[in-house]
Design a protein that fits this description.
The chain is mainly α. The protein has 13 helices and no strands.
Length: 206
């Protein structure tokens, strides 16, 4: 576990292997070995360990949650949603599971489902720049531009270096003809290194 904290998954993997060799029923070692394997970009091996944990400890909410991430990384969104949902059923306050399920639902064009998950994660207290950014994207696509602008603002407040949030907020402001504030956002986005900002400035302001 110390090696995982130090971001040395290869060394962690060796120790989990040693632990399992000494105690084949130490399910926490399988669980954490799966996380190490996932960090080492070995998702199929990670999946085997997480399946083994869930088969033996069926009420392990975090195992379902992390298996959902593995399925998502393997391009299996339906299985990912099933696992995130199972994790939420076991632990209804697992706020990251709502956010991640929302991301998968958005990828499957389920805007309402994704928005409901983002709202739930926010109501549970998750303060993530990415979460508010993702909610802003959906509000913009649904034509709820004032809500989109507010969401991007919350994203920026959490992470003032989020160049894409300034850019997206500018685009929402352009749609409602707020050209002055849009330009201010585009200038910040450009200064932070987001290339599309310069393109929009040259298109709309020159």
């Amino acid at each position: 576990m110390d090696y995982i904290t130090r971001e040395q998954p290869g060394k962690a993997l060796q120790e989990f292997n040693n632990a399992i060799a000494l105690d084949p029923n130490l399910f926490s070692a399988y669980y954490n070995r799966a996380i190490a394997l996932a960090n080492l970009k070995q998702p199929q091996e990670a999946l085997k360990d997480m399946n083994y944990v869930i088969a033996n400890v069926p009420n392990h909410a975090m195992a379902y949650y992390n298996r959902g991430i593995i399925h998502e990384n393997l391009g299996e969104p339906t299985l990912a949603i099933q696992d995130y949902s199972h994790a939420i059923n076991l632990q209804p306050d697992l706020l990251e599971a709502y956010h991640y399920r929302g991301i998968v639902r958005y990828g499957m064009k389920d805007l309402d489902g994704a928005l409901a998950d983002y709202e739930k994660a926010i109501s549970l207290g998750l303060k993530s720049s990415a979460l508010f950014f993702n909610r802003g994207v959906i509000f913009h696509q649904k034509g709820q531009l004032s809500n989109a602008i507010e969401s991007y603002t919350r994203s920026i407040q959490i992470d003032p270096s989020n160049a894409k949030a300034y850019y997206n907020r500018a685009i929402s402001k352009l749609v409602v003809d707020n050209y002055k504030e849009a330009l201010e956002d585009l200038e910040i986005s450009k200064r932070l290194g987001y290339p599309k900002a310069a393109e929009v400035i040259s298109q709309y302001y020159h």
